[in-house]
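Subject: two folds for Thursday's group meeting

Dear M.,

Sorry for the delay on this. The cluster queue was jammed most of the week, so I only got both jobs back this morning. I'm pasting them in the order they finished. Each block is the input sequence followed by the predicted structure tokens. Could you check whether the formatting survives your parser before we put anything on slides? The first protein is the one we discussed after the seminar.
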Amino acid sequence: MSAKEAPKRILILAANPIDTDRLRLDKEVREIKEVLRLAKQRDRFEVSAELAATPDDIQQALVDYSPNIVHFCGHGEGSEGLILEGDNGTGNLVSADALANLFELFAEQVECVLLNACYSDEQADAIVQHIDAVIGMSQSIGDTAARKFAVGFYRGLGAGRDVEFAYKLGRNAIEMANLRGEQTPVLRQKEQVAEPPEPEGSTPVISAKVFISYRSKDPDQGLAQIFHDALKAAGHHVFMAAENIRLGDDWPQRIDDALEEADYFLLLLSPKAATSEMVLDEVRKAKRFRDTRPDHRPVILPIRVNFPIQDPLNYDLRSYLHLIQQREWSSDQDTDALLAEVLSIIATGRQNDAPESEPPDPPSPPPTGDSQGPPRPVADPEIPMGQVDIASEFYVERPPIEARCYEAILKPSALIRIKAPRQMGKTSLMARILYRAAEAGYKTVPLSFQLADEIVFADLDAFLQWFCASVTSELELVDCLDDHWQTRIGSKMSCTNYFERYLLKQVDEPMVLGLDEVDLVFQHSEIASNFFGLLRAWHEKSKSRVSWKKLRLVVVHSTEVYIPLNMHQSPFNVGLPIELPEFTEGQVLDLAKRHGLDWQIDAVKELMSMVGGHPYLVREALYHITHQDLTLDELLETAFTESGLYGDHLRRHWWNLSQHPELAEAIREVVLSNKPVRLKPVHAFQLHSMGLVNLQGNDVTPRCDLYRQYFRSNRMRGEE
């Protein structure tokens, strides 16, 4: 050290009040001192420490020591503040504003502040208005991880490197120790919080509420953090789960509240995020709010992260993001331009609609599945996401279901009813039925009720007009609704006339109408009873009237039909009923081999002991095991935990259950019992349609051990 260069003074402030969880703060102080003692430039630093620090102690220490670096270790409570010691040894909360005002007084000498406490990023945001560099924690961080970060940080400073390098070395120290939380420390730098220049010609920015939907892995999380910081600096209120949800919060409610309040929904969509059930639900809810509000808020802003625009989205996302402009991020070089565009959209208040795109190319033909031929070659594994592509090698037939459906759809008056819980392959089967019909020269019309805006369900007339217009569009015919819709004869008669006198006359060949997600209609009992009664009437007409013989129906649903329907007016007690079963051991073994896994039946039994024969859960496991993301043993050990492979899937179920306390209580009763449980029929049907339970007569049991173990966790027992 030069004779003229004064040493950097480090002040460590520690507080662990008697009414807070015990931390090894003494060990953190010792380890910091030790790593600096061993540092190459150890003579550049002087370390002082104040343990059991009270607010008065902090003021006095800042005055006495004139530190250049201030390190706080202890507890944080997010927006409520940092916890210091009170006069009686219990906790004393100090707000972000109070801390910011304190550090403003010492801004000429303090260069860096490190807040090594849970949820301290709000204090960091306040302090960085006056101090060049401040590090906070975006969420809860374990005691060991916090110490590892501190040691890595001071190791970097001790080597003569700058704060940013030391911060990165600290995060890497957590990662190298194989601990969770390397993304938790966040660095705020004073120059980054200046307001960005307004776009040329723009009006002054009005504060907006922005919800950021992202996957909590880099690069998604890092990009989300950049957008969060920039939007916040521009004066907007930003919700980002890692920044806003605290330990102990009712996180499903926090997410729902933030979505409902949002003006903008920023969706960071990587290939993995596109398969996330939580992300899918957030998009669905955002679209529902957008469709039902006069101001069409929130505006949805999708950015594909390392996910080219030409790559297909899954069935659900494709319907939710239909006609919404999407952008693409492929490297850090894209960040500034995308950020500027998002800020501009918010500043000008414009929508984000895209022009109609060309219809997709027709699907490739499915494999023949000839069991007498050579075995199928192993294909590149596919990410499990919604409908299995028509040409996929990974579709598993469940004989004799497919053969019966292919035979039935070619007969006059055909009506096929496919029922199974979520993610069992209903839509994939419907797509194959329509494909076989198309091969036979039939007109096919796939129609998902997910595509219907919420306002469509306002009344029966609006719903049936949407239904007719949608079928017309799929058939690429001219919309002639105005010529056939007559108020005096009513909506159902007008709809029937439109089909009989226009649509069916425009086609010479049979027409197959595939209706997917009809559960969404069940939620509107008046519309449901009229619409399904109409379908039944058309089915009866097809038995006697030539024009109606052209119409064949495929109806797909998850939920038991518990709406009141006259047995003679219901389409759910006629036609060919199909209930999709789970995969058998032999089917799972075959699917494993298609993934290139050299499994024997024992491995299949181990997997099925956790997830049963649930098609989605099985495919998810095989995909990640094939990619060596984890082994079968690792999957089984962590499957039912928040950090396991199915964490997102399980959280989505918990989120849905939290919206219906009666269902949450029902599943709790089921998983805590070692015997079948008898529930109210409507609760049993709803839990079965969600795929969480099996029905055994009038009783129910957990669908698989995965659900039993997850819902038996502390999360459930904590509500007792």
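Second protein, same layout:
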Amino acid sequence: MAIDTYAPCPGGTGKKIKFCCADLVGDLEQLDTLIEGDQISAALDQVKRLEAKTPGRACLMATRTKLELAAKQYAEAATSSQAFLDAFPANPLALGQSAITDAIAGRMQEAAAAFDKSREAAGEAAGEEGRNVATELVRIAGTLVQVAAQLGHVGFAQGIVDWLIDQSLGSEDERRLMAAIVGSSGVPAALRTRVRLEEPVGAAAWRPDFETALAHARHWRLAKALTAFRGLKGIAGDSRELFTNIAVICEMLAKPFEASEAWAAVARMGGTPADDAVEAIGRTIALETEADPDRSPLVRFASRIAPLVVPGGEAGATALDLLDDKLRHTGSCEQTAFDRAQWVSRNAVPPRSAWRVFDGSSPARLLATLLIFARQTDREPEAVLQGFAPDVDAARPIVEPLLGCTFGGETGGEALPGTTPTNWLMGSQFRMQPPTAPPAPAAAGQPSMVDGLLDEQRAALWNRFLAIWPDTPLPELLGKTPREAVRDPQAARRVEAIITEGEATSRRPDASAAWTAMRERVGLPAPAPVESTRPLEDGVPPLRWHRLDMARLSLDELRGVLVTAVDAGFERAAERAAEAVSSRPDATPADRWEAFGVLEDRAASSVRKLEIIAELRRLAPVLKANDGMLDVAELRVRMQRGDEGDVMRLFEHVRREHARDQQVLQAFAEVMMEAGVDLSALAGRSSPGTAAMGAPGGAASSPGTASAAAAGKLWTPGGESSGPAGEKKVIWTPT
């Protein structure tokens, strides 16, 4: 493709090709041809030869770095990028590419600083050159958003998306995709509300300097803004607006530790309302974790080894068989399946058997996994006990007498991962003990045996959580226990922030109720209801929405609260809003369909799920909705309950009415596989109409999600709603 010599230099020099690199036009055309043909290696070899002949040319240096990044030659790209930056320190592309190489190396603060300079330098370019640089920066921004989101630097990633939106750079699809990347990165609940920059209050002498700093920030000169705001600390140290702005800018510059300190300062200020102080501390905790994800105390994963003393030859194999039989007949061990192919694919020898080890409580809690390895040419028989360290320690006295061994050395040492004590406690699993004889089918409207077992598990989980958590040292509390922390007013806000987040974001009502019970357990008062009747217009943060009086909200407000709470993961508010919408006489059938869909997805008991599905069936004809997905949703519940007659009725209905609906068939296949049904065997015994039941089709969706847009994009009050619930969480923007 011919190059226009009056086009801007692709190296970001600010000159046109005719006046910058006219002698390289033919070579640049050849490079373009190779790149368009996806011949990255050939293009890279070509650009290296050209650089050797004509060193120090920006267009070649920029192209080389870009090609090395495309080829995933990150070390070489870092060297080339540094050379480009040394030669052209004010070049926006050199700065942008330096930001990428820093981000890939995990140097997020350096990456954010370089991109801030790149953005500022690009802003000074005018005309066609400015547009060309902006196009390249959008590509650079996309890479930085992916890396920053993957490494947990949400503020940096979200700040880039905000800049693109503010400057109308890139296409709407590109901006939506980047917002979705941020939303799918596991945004902490405390950071799902975007905080705006604050205006100065009053007529203090330092106000002009504050406004100058604010102007820098609004023109995306973030480093200059931060320097100017920092300079005001000595004379405006009691300004909540000052520290809020410092915190917001530090989040966007990937300075989580300084941002956390600024939010902590906001929380300490006397004029900060109680809810604002708790939410500021919530941001403090999230940013401290971003700055140091491995801060103590963590609950580490442990993997301990014990040699097994067994004779050689056939006698050894017999001894291991007897050992397996001994484990099989003890009440504390339960054999579990494992995928041998995965072990082989990693060039690892699979164990001969795997067991789950339980404690003696009722119901029994899962402690660890026990792996038994047979004799190999390079090692003797051994047992490996794996799980979180406290649980492995509890499992050792159970397993060691059975095996006649002593577990000692670690297989992975400090490299093994860990989790927070809160996550460890909330991840407790308990053994389900179904009755020895098949129970009679549950009567209509009555809980099933599975409901009872699940209730037993939930009760065991939350009883353990409520008993242990108050006296457990937590990293979020800087090593203190919740009981110790509540004695200090500032530390008590940390406990309040953790509990508030748990109440607001727990997906199941029993989990939210457990967090509420924890308030009383540690001596914290219940928060006051939120009085707003227009939370979207008033800018009430979503962390407070579960405290709204939903009955006082208009239907439009309820719709907004419901959609946003679902998308942003504020589950308690979503459930309460859905309950309010479903009971409103002025709600449309579409409103009720969406509300019931949210409630069905979160219902804990099979009885409640069936009640909601019945409501959805009544709405389906009115909305002319396909009831195939309702059949599948009910089928899943009926199979869990053991309602054989209803299972067959639904099976036949799906076969007759939805045998050509690929979305329904895919969801049907998933339910069958969950139940352990052999679909190939089923298809072999079925008529031609049912043989397609296992055929792949479109992705399954739950009732009530069809009207939502793509998940993960930013939501603004009054704007288009975001997508259905899921892992992608939007960042909520107040009006």
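Two things I noticed about the second structure. Residues 299-419 form one domain. The radius of gyration is 30 Å.

Cheers,
T.
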